[in-house]
Write a structure and sequence with these properties.
Elements (H helix, E strand, L loop, with lengths): L1 H10 L1 H23 L5
Length: 40
């Protein structure tokens, strides 16, 4: 099973990086959005 996961990650490493960047962007957007009402 670990070998299968390593194979999948090695074949789709660019996609994993893009997905990680997307998750980070969504998290930042969420934090900023939740803090906006406190600024006014």
């Amino acid at each position: 099973m670990i070998k299968d996961l390593k194979t999948v990650l090695s074949r789709s490493s660019a996609t994993v990086v893009q997905d990680t960047i997307g998750v980070i962007a969504l998290a930042i957007t969420l934090v900023v959005g939740l803090n906006l009402p406190g600024l006014f």
